[in-house]
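Protein entry
_____________
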Amino acid sequence: MKQALLVFVGGGLGSLLRFLLSKHLNTLSTSFFWGTFSVNILGCLILGLLTGYSLRNSNFPPEYSLLFATGFCGGFTTFSTFVLEKHQLLREGAWLPFLAYLGLSIATGYLFLWLGFALSNR
C-alpha cells in the first residue's frame, strides 16, 4: 500500500507541475507545442539524473524511485499528449512541423537523458 501511495503522490505532483508549465509555455507560440516539448525534455533529464544516481548509489532507497521516477516523471511527462499533437499536425498537413517536432523531441530527449546520467556520475 505504501508503494502505491508513493506513486500516487509523485504522479499527482508531476501532473500538476506539467499542467502549470504547459499552460504557461504553450502561450509562447501557436505553431509549436513548447509546453509538451519542454516537460518531456525536462522529464528525460530528471529521469536520467535519478536513474544514474540510483545505479551509482546502492543506498538509494527504492521508495525514492517509486516516488520520483515512476510517480513524478510518469505524471510529469506526456507521451500521449505528444502523440496527439503529432496527429493534429498530420491532419493539418503540416509535414515539416510534424517531422521537426518528432525529430527534435526524440533527439533532444535522448540527449537530456544522457546528460542526466552524465551529471549524476560526477
